[in-house]
TrEMBL record, chain A:
Keywords: ATP-binding, Nucleotide-binding, Transport. Pfam families: ABC_tran. This is ATP-binding cassette domain-containing protein. InterPro entries: AAA+_ATPase (IPR003593), ABC_transporter-like_ATP-bd (IPR003439), ABC_transporter-like_CS (IPR017871), ABC_transporter_ATP-bind (IPR050166), P-loop_NTPase (IPR027417). It comes from the Bacteria. One of its GO terms (molecular function) is ATP binding. Belongs to the ABC transporter superfamily. Residues 8-239 form the ABC transporter domain. The keyword ATP-binding applies.
UniProtKB/TrEMBL annotation, chain B:
Belongs to the binding-protein-dependent transport system permease family. InterPro entries: MetI-like, MetI-like_sf. It holds the Pfam family BPD_transp_1. It comes from Hoeflea alexandrii. This is ABC transporter permease subunit. It is found in: Cell membrane. It comes from the Bacteria.
Amino acid sequence: MPETVISAQKLDLTFETNDGPVHALKDITLDITEGEFVSLIGPSGCGKTTLLRVIADLEQPTGGSVSVNGLTPEQARLARAYGYVFQQAALLPWRTIEDNIALPLEVMGLDAATRTSRIKSNLELVNLSGFEKKFPWQLSGGMQQRASIARALAVEPDMLLMDEPFGALDEIVRDHLNEQLLKLWAKTKKTVVFVTHSIPEAVFLSTKIVVMSPRPGRIYEIIDCSALGTERSLDIRETPEFLKIAHQVREGLKAGHSYDD
Amino acid sequence: MSEHSLLHDKILPIGTVVLAIIALWYAAAVFLNTPFERDQAQRAGNTISFSEILPRTMAQERPVLPAPHQVFAELWDTTVGKSITSKRSLVYHSWITLSSTLLGFLMGTVLGVALAVGIVHYQTLDRSLMPWIITSQTIPILAIAPMIIVVLNAVGISGLLPKATISMYLSFFPIAVGMTKGLRSPEVMHLDLMRTYSATASQTFWKLRLPAAVPFLVTSMKVAISIALVGAIVGELPTGAVAGLGARLLAGSYYGQTVQIWSALLMAAALAGILVMTVDIIGAWVNRRMGVKPA
């Protein structure tokens, strides 16, 4: 029986703004077990990114509780339990690719030999060997995002938290990176929490899809995707099982008032 | 690829402007120095034609506006023509001014960076210091310079340091303002990234804020070094300093030596140009090291 690694109980988060309180998250209860690939999907303003940031201890909930690896999010962050991938690659422009991947390792205080070996193995993992000495601007958007995934993996975290990592890329690159990410996930067995607003992306990648709805941000439905198996290629997007789950997600979004004006 | 050559890109445009300035300068010299020649002729009871006046306007001993070739002759004579240890060598005087400029610039940079670091990390300092920093620059330097010299002299500090203090007083400001902006320039995403690594404040400073501030620092240093030179020259005026470009300007105006004033002015301008260019070259080198995309 796999362990529960992330557990949210009746989570609430209200932002105080100049225009009055904004209820970003309401009554979120969610369990994620080890090795799962969970997508959070929903329209803008449904709180999917906020939920991810609460797990990462980048936002503080105003009610309820979260545990990550049985710890509070802050303890988990201090223990470097997760690697976080942002919407943009967020590479430091003055560091080469290898030095960018070295950044978290320097912060952790690892010695040079360990840093070098982790840089090498993680660049291999994302197929970027040979680009160590390049600066970020010399790489395409997709390659930059792969470098940022390598940087997150170099910390050797138990889980990856990904906030629309491919949202800014074109569809061709995105398909390719989705396939690579799935291979990476199969190889590393990490728990992944993945925020997206793309239905095909969510269905293709996930073992479980969390459909969220806006105002206030809450979970509308949790859809199981294990029917698609673990060995997936882009071709499965044409299969009836895939289309059925995609339809179910779309219906969920509709019923959750995601398409209301 | 289009034609790019040194001649076309640099020498031609700059040369054209230089020639235009020299032509205007000659015209102004003739115009401004003519009344003196007419006056002289009238006193002697002579009438004088324009063709006789023209050459004389460019060879007066104390002209209102010396002609370019007079200034260049003086510049040549006082740089190449004199031993650099001579009190009449402009190189010697330039060095006196340059040394206090550089010391003041260094002190100003250290002070400006230190203030910026404090301002970025402590909100109290931001609120309490920033208004004073801005106020400091609204006081005319000509008013405060003599007081700095007198006060420092009273506590037994004289020579290079009082002048350098005035340079520092002027040059710390652009550094403090630019560096504050630079240290605050990292995006929220990069700051969040450091937080996910559980980086300490000092790690975030050294690995993120400081490198992000470097381009801002280089730009402010360019402004700061030229006003540090102004500060050093101004610092030489109220002291009755015997050496330095400021002293040359002052002595020139006492004795009506306009040629000397203008050559000191041109020397100061050349010095400022060299200083800014030096900072520029260092900045370009740093940018290359930091992987800035070539334009």
